[in-house]
Amino acid sequence: MAGAKAVTARLAIGVGGRRGVDPIALAALAREAAARCGVVVEGAVCAALAGREDEAEFRAASGLLSASFVLLPLEALRKRDAELLTRSPLVAAMFGVGSLVEALALAGAGEGSRLLAPRFSTDRLACAIAEGAA
């Protein structure tokens, strides 16, 4: 996605999961994560990895959260790798970034953003929340 515009949001939720995720379960996980972080998800940016355009579940979860939806390229995530709070050797080997959802949240919230907590996950879903710079 050469020439893609930078994304900047007050709050961004990085979302991920195995193919065929349940959008209701993903939205519930994001709401639980937000509650634990003391924020609300309405009006946030919900970011997923580019290449998942054919997976309507992520867009549906964003709608359930009243969040806008954006797909971000892997190269934008790799730029934020040093700022991640968790690392998965498997994810790092596959994608070159320690946590996709943490990097998605940071990239979605823009330059100067910070993670509010390490990623939240289940056996099939994961999300992370980042706050944009004031």
UniProtKB/TrEMBL annotation:
<feature type="domain" description="CobE/GbiG C-terminal">
    <location>
        <begin position="11"/>
        <end position="130"/>
    </location>
</feature>
<keyword id="KW-0472">Membrane</keyword>
<dbReference type="Pfam" id="PF01890">
    <property type="entry name" value="CbiG_C"/>
</dbReference>
<keyword id="KW-0812">Transmembrane</keyword>
<dbReference type="InterPro" id="IPR002750">
    <property type="entry name" value="CobE/GbiG_C"/>
</dbReference>
<dbReference type="GO" id="GO:0009236">
    <property type="term" value="P:cobalamin biosynthetic process"/>
</dbReference>
<protein>
    <recommendedName>
        <fullName>CobE/GbiG C-terminal domain-containing protein</fullName>
    </recommendedName>
</protein>
<keyword id="KW-1133">Transmembrane helix</keyword>
<dbReference type="InterPro" id="IPR036518">
    <property type="entry name" value="CobE/GbiG_C_sf"/>
</dbReference>
<feature type="transmembrane region" description="Helical">
    <location>
        <begin position="89"/>
        <end position="109"/>
    </location>
</feature>
